[in-house]
Amino acid sequence: MGRCAGGSKTPPEAGRRGGAADGVTKAHGLDTLVGRKGEQAMVKNIGNADRAVRVVAGVVIIAAGLYFKSWWGAVGVLLLLTAFIRWCPAYLPFGISTNRTKV
Length: 103
Description:
By secondary structure, this protein is mainly alpha-helical. The chain contains two helices and two strands; from the N terminus they run E-E-H-H. A two-stranded antiparallel sheet has the order 1-2. Helix 1 packs antiparallel against helix 2 (73-85). The two termini are 30 Å apart.
């Protein structure tokens, strides 16, 4: 094992194709991007159909919240946010991903 500039040891798979050098590791059964300092980045887990449903439902819920003067419209904002960033934290514990990845 070699040493990095900061003194930490490099993993043995860092030099192989598909290892940590590519920034992709397996975590919780999903491919997860790993940043330069080792932190995990968000990976898209919302597909196109799921995204479209979230956008439509989000707009409808926001409109209903405004019409009925209810705070339920905030739920619509969450749906729009998750559709925009294509990542749903509620899917993580269950390992759900509706995003089709190209191999």
